């Protein structure tokens, strides 16, 4: 997801390097055509979210990339990797913006699930691996570190106070959205891919008919 999002930024002026990267992506897709998302029957019907961000990863304009993933039951069903619209001055700010963007997705998903008869009566847990960003969302006072941030991102505080979401801390090594924000080492990538519920045919044996 991150690789395709990154390549999409250069569709108007691709270079040979981008063509080479695109070939690697296609090679990966070809090698994983029989992989799938595993959904286990009987799991709790609770919407759970993860949000993360890199910091200034875009070389051209120093903007950060937000990533989010939402699971419902046993596997993810909604995810995204998007470059932020403004330059974050710190990792805290980048994570705060990422959490705000994930909150908009959480609100929409709650509406969709309600239409399907899966009303979310409790606040949706949204996992973030930055303690300072969480502290900012729970502080109703605008201070030196947040007064310059675009106002539209501060609505996350209202969502928190109204019980729509609950921003919770999770360790970085358990942050599933990390896979949507940057390139990762093979072992880390495979681990997070598995945690998202993406399984190989061998892993799915016994749970579905192949």
TrEMBL record:
Domain of life: Eukaryota
CDD domains, A to Z: RNase_HI_RT_Ty1
Name recorded for this polypeptide: BURP domain-containing protein
């Amino acid at each position: 997801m991150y690789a395709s999002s990154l390549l999409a930024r250069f569709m108007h002026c691709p270079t040979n390097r981008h063509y080479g990267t695109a070939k690697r992506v296609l090679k990966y897709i070809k090698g994983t055509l029989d992989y799938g998302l595993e959904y286990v029957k009987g799991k709790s019907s609770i919407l759970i979210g993860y949000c993360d961000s890199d910091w200034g990863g875009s070389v051209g304009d120093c903007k950060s990339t937000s990533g989010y993933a939402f699971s419902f039951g046993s596997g993810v069903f909604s995810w995204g990797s998007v470059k932020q619209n403004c330059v974050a001055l710190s990792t805290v700010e980048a994570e705060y913006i990422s959490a705000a963007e994930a909150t908009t997705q959480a609100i929409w998903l709650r509406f969709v699930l309600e239409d399907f008869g899966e009303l979310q009566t409790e606040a949706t847990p949204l996992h973030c691996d930055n303690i300072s960003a969480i502290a900012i969302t729970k502080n109703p006072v605008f201070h030196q570190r947040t007064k310059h941030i675009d106002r539209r991102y501060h609505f996350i505080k209202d969502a928190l106070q109204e019980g729509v979401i609950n921003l919770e801390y999770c360790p970085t090594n358990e942050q599933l959205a990390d896979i949507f924000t940057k390139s990762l080492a093979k072992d880390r990538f495979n681990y997070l891919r598995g945690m998202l519920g993406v399984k190989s045919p061998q892993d799915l044996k016994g749970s579905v008919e192949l």
